[in-house]
């Protein structure tokens, strides 16, 4: 056996599969997508690869005549990870011409190619391969072509070609074409007389099909089909328009047998510093309502300058039922208002701030004007964070100016200033942070009864402290921490009930509310949201946290317990609420575990010690042992307000078969909120998903929407039907 080193330029043969994959509809495989597939074929054994960059041939016999070489019998050629097998190879070094015949095989980085013979001009990257078969193992793509032509470094032509992602012997789907041209230079692929076959039966034919090798190209997208008890049979056929490299549009007619045709037009743009989309929906004369229905959704995000961010969202619908009747990206059907905003924010090392314009469309026309939210036109903010002063002292400051607008009730402007001086002292064993601040708020109001320019000024004093203890453990948890924390807050009482008073003498607020009592409220300097109320305080918050960490520092479990001790009554209240007189708050407890990567759990409770009852609680348990296996349990409770259970799952029961479902139930109302039940079958190269979904927006809504979803996915090609996968990812498989 002879070794013949030859200077061989890298052949373009190995790019055949790259071009086919890039040019066709095949997409990258997700994790575990091909778990039901067989192993890729083995082209044969080869000696260890050479260390240099030259090509090395081994053969049973070799002949050399000048710069011509003939190798016969078990020929193996190798160069930089490439391996070529053939029964005979004739190589002419003068013009870099190569002929290979007999059991031709080529392997490079997961790419496999077979053929009867090859005639290649390596210098010009031209040539042909007869009876070619190809395989891309990482994408599980295989196919064949009667003849494969290399027409330069950027062009490829295949005659009578076929490809599929199914295993050998599985003919569930395959795509045939009499001729296929791939042109990387012009980013264009053209197929002639292409047809899709399912179980060897042709189901789709087109005499001409063009597509981009990379990116997008104008053309029809895959249709979707569904059924709803409110809209009837639904068929959508999107038309994609590739307007430019950074602009595109999609026009989608949604045919609904009971309503008519809803036209959805989406325009998208993507520039160096901004991106966005504009979507318009229109349905002329809905057959069920007799009205013209329409909606507009505009979104923009950008970075006009370094450190600056812009965010625009404008939404408007023709009627309050639009979100319920039609699936769209406008928001959940349970929304009562559509927020519209335009924001421009900046952030530096110590200084941040922004400009915000915000208003709402109220979806329920019966809602009174006084119950509707205020628009902020505009809102200006400026923040100074941890600005060093003398020694360890730092300065924090927040400033906000807002103009509140509404058709009814008190309106006006509000200036809110909050300068603070802190002295943070920290070490590995703990921290101590005394803080002194001032909150100054000034109004200029219209339709106000009484003082039109009220002012509120309050000092704010706090002392935050904590310690860190730890001990080593044995087992999976290697370290346990114990972190006690005390937070004292003092804010003197000021009567704020007359800051905003309507024409009828009733106290009002622009944006203040009382959030749910959670751990974050233990360490806040104001128990209210918004600036219209600054809570009086003379209290001490106490909390204890313990964490369990593994050897790598990952948190396996966390336990927290805390409450507030009040030294005086809370006399500042929201309109219509009573003074709080209890000396201690409810207990707060939180437990979260991530003991294994597949099991997560969480529990948070608010316990009323005086009444010996749970005031609020949330329980969740998630078991996720594999990418397509999940079991979730959740329970949510708020005394006299909400009690719901939520169970969802996707679980394999037989090879390829999985059951999926969700059951969301209002225990307090004895009412089903959502039920999903379905079945998925998945094989190597295709998957079928069928489910029925029944749901209502909330417990007050008597309407129950029923939809039937069916999706057929041809792996590596496309999917037809309603996008069941998006529902699974959002409601069942999402972490």
What features would you highlight for this structure?
single chain; 735 residues; mainly beta; lipopolysaccharide transport protein A fold; 26-stranded antiparallel β-barrel; 13-stranded antiparallel β-sheet; 3 helices; 44 strands; disordered N terminus
Topology:
Elements: E1 2-6, H1 15-23, E2 55-59, E3 61-65, E4 68-79, E5 82-92, E6 97-108, E7 111-121, E8 126-136, E9 141-151, E10 155-164, E11 173-183, E12 188-198, E13 201-211, E14 219-220, E15 224-228, E16 232-236, E17 239-244, E18 247-256, E19 260-270, E20 274-283, E21 293-302, E22 308-317, H2 322-325, E23 337-347, E24 351-362, E25 375-388, E26 394-405, E27 411-422, E28 425-427, E29 430-446, E30 455-467, E31 469-472, E32 479-491, E33 537-549, E34 555-566, E35 587-596, E36 599-608, E37 613-626, E38 629-638, E39 642-654, E40 657-666, E41 671-682, E42 686-695, E43 705-714, E44 718-721, H3 724-731
Antiparallel strand pairs: 1-2, 2-4, 3-4, 4-5, 5-6, 6-7, 7-8, 8-9, 9-10, 10-11, 11-12, 12-13, 14-17, 15-16, 15-43, 16-18, 17-18, 18-19, 19-20, 20-21, 21-22, 22-23, 23-24, 24-25, 25-26, 26-27, 27-29, 28-29, 29-30, 30-32, 31-32, 32-33, 33-34, 34-35, 35-36, 36-37, 37-38, 38-39, 39-40, 40-41, ...
């Amino acid at each position: 056996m002879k070794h013949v080193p030859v200077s061989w330029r890298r052949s373009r043969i190995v790019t055949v599969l790259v071009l086919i994959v890039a040019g066709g509809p095949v997409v990258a495989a997700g994790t575990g997508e091909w778990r039901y597939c067989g192993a890729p074929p083995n082209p044969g054994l080869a000696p260890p690869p050479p260390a240099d960059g030259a090509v090395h041939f081994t053969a049973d016999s070799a002949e050399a005549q000048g710069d011509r070489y003939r190798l016969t019998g078990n020929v193996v050629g190798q160069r930089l990870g490439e391996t070529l097998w053939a029964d005979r190879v004739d190589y002419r070094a003068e013009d870099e011409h190569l002929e290979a015949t007999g059991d031709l095989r080529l392997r490079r980085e997961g790419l496999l190619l077979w053929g009867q013979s090859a005639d290649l001009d390596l210098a010009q990257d031209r040539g042909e391969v007869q009876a070619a078969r190809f395989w891309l193992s990482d994408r599980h793509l295989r196919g064949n072509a009667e003849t494969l032509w290399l027409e330069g470094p950027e062009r490829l032509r295949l005659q009578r070609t076929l490809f599929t992602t199914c295993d050998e012997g599985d003919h569930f789907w395959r795509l045939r074409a009499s001729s296929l041209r791939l042109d990387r230079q012009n980013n264009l692929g053209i197929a002639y007389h292409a047809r899709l076959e399912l179980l060897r039966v042709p189901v789709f034919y087109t005499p001409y099909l063009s597509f981009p090798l990379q990116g997008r190209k104008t053309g029809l997208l895959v249709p979707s089909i569904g059924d709803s008890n409110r809209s009837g049979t639904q068929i959508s056929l999107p038309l994609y328009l590739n307007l430019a490299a950074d602009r595109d549009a999609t026009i989608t007619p949604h045919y609904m047998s009971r309503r008519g045709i809803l036209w959805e037009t989406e325009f998208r743009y993507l520039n160096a510093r901004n991106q966005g989309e504009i979507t318009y929906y229109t349905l002329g004369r809905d057959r069920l309502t007799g009205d013209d229905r329409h909606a507009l959704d505009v979104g923009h995000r950008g970075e006009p300058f370094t450190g600056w961010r812009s965010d625009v969202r404008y939404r408007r619908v023709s009627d309050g039922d639009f979100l319920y009747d039609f699936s769209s990206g406008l928001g959940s059907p349970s929304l009562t208002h559509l927020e519209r905003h335009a924001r421009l924010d900046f952030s530096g090392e110590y200084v941040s701030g922004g400009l915000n314009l915000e208003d709402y469309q109220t979806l329920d026309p019966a809602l009174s004007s006084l119950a509707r939210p205020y628009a902020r036109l505009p809102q200006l903010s400026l923040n100074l964070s941890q600005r060093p002063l003398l020694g360890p002292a730092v300065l924090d400051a927040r400033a906000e100016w807002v103009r509140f607008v509404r058709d009814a009730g008190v309106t006006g402007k509000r200036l809110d200033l909050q300068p603070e001086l802190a002295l943070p002292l920290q070490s590995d064993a703990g921290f101590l942070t005394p803080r002194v601040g001032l909150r100054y708020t000034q109004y200029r109001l219209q339709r106000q009864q009484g003082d039109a320019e009220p002012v509120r000024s309050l000092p704010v004093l706090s002392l935050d402290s904590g310690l860190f203890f730890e001990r080593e453990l044995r087992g999976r948890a290697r370290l346990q921490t114990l972190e006690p924390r005390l937070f004292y807050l003092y804010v003197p009482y000021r009567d704020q009930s007359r800051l905003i008073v309507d024409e009828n003498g009733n106290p009002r607020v622009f944006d203040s509310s009382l959030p749910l009592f959670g751990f974050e409220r233990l360490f806040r300097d104001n128990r209210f949201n918004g600036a219209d109320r600054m809570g009086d305080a003379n209290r001490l918050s106490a909390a204890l946290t313990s964490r369990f960490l593994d050897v790598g520092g990952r948190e396996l479990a966390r336990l927290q317990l805390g409450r507030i001790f009040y030294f005086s009554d809370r006399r500042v209240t929201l309109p219509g609420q009573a003074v709080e007189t209890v000396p201690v708050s409810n207990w707060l407890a939180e437990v979260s575990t991530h003991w294994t990567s597949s099991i997560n759990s969480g529990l948070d409770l608010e316990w009323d010690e005086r009444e010996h009852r749970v005031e609020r609680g949330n329980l969740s348990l998630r078991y996720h042992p594999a990418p397509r296996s999940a079991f979730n349990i959740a329970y949510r409770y708020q005394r006299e307000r909400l009690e719901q259970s939520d169970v969802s799952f996707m679980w394999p029961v037989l090879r390829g078969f999985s059951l999926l479902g969700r059951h969301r139930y209002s225990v307090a109302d004895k009412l089903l909120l959502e039920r999903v039940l379905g079945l998925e079958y998945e094989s190597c190269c295709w998957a079928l998903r069928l489910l029925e979904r029944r749901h209502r927006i909330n417990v007050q809504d008597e309407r129950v929407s029923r939809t039937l979803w069916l999706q057929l996915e041809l792996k590596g090609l496309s999917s037809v039907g309603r996008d069941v996968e998006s529902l699974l990812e959002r409601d069942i498989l999402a972490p």
